[in-house]
Design goal:
3% strand, 49% helix
């Protein structure tokens, strides 16, 4: 997932919920997700356009620090200067409730694992994400 200022869809909805102080039933979600800040993605694209080793290669990119959905919401709340209002609802209960509402896909995206390995970009291109997760979240929440 790409996140940052002006990003839409699920991330925008999460930003809105955190900024409004809505309680979220996500404190029991212990998944692992690879995210990439918009600034890091842009830097990586520039690196690929200028680095000779990038030609004809396929890379996976992330911030290099995987987060659970719970950690993401806590980081967003901290960046926004808001308390993280997380409720301990078991993931199975979220799945059942979402299925009944026809929103099973949304819960899968929030609760499932999705990790990428950026070691190829690090070793072949020497690329290191220039923006930390904390700074990326601060920028995303400043909008």
């Amino acid at each position: 997932m790409v996140y940052g200022p002006g990003v839409k869809a699920n991330f925008a909805a999460l930003v809105c919920a955190v900024q409004r102080g809505w309680p979220l039933p996500l404190s029991s979600v212990h998944n692992q997700r690879s995210l990439v800040a918009l600034s890091n993605l842009a830097d990586f694209i520039v690196t690929c356009t200028t680095h000779p080793q990038a030609a004809n290669q396929t890379f996976l990119v992330s911030d290099g620090q995987d987060l659970s959905t719970t950690q993401l919401v806590r980081g967003m709340a901290q960046a926004a200067g808001e308390p993280a209002r997380l409720l301990p609802v078991p993931v199975w209960a979220l799945r059942v409730g979402a299925s009944l509402l026809g929103k099973g896909g949304a819960v899968q995206r929030l609760c499932g694992n999705l990790q990428v390995d950026i070691s190829k970009a690090r070793s072949l291109l020497g690329w290191v994400p220039p923006v930390s997760v904390e700074e990326g979240l601060r920028r995303a929440m400043a909008v």
